[in-house]
Amino acid sequence: MLRKFFFFAILASFFLACGNEQPADTTQQTGQPQTFGEAITADGAVSLADVATQLQSADSLQVKVKGKVESVCQVKGCWMNLSDEQANNVFVQFKDYGFFMPKDIAGREVILDGYAFREVTSVEDLKHFAEDEGKSKEEIAAITEPKEELKFMANGVILLPAKL
Asked: What's the pTM value of the predicted model, to 2 decimals?
């Protein structure tokens, strides 16, 4: 009986430790960019406005883009929203759910390499993402229509150091 208890206690602690993986933001301490996913460079990054313009005449686009983090999934860091000064927004997910971002990087600049496209997001998914973001029940209940939006599947991300 005691052996079973210890076995399950060890097993439970293993699963709890694995489920809370959260990348650390080391850019604050080092002042150096930090890479998530595939190693990429900043060379050739374009603005969100450029991507939005190019997607007016294409279904999808392999591109490197620079933007400001508007929000991050507060459950795991498994998605983020980017924005720019021209009110362009993009919803970003990570290839094969293979990496996550720190949850406290709103307001920071990133460079993404991957695949941009337009897609309609269902009401159910919009509500799920709103929950992940920590929105109120009233804000979530107000979501009643699907939304066509610019999306991005990132292979790699560079988190730039915060500006002082």
From this structure: 0.77
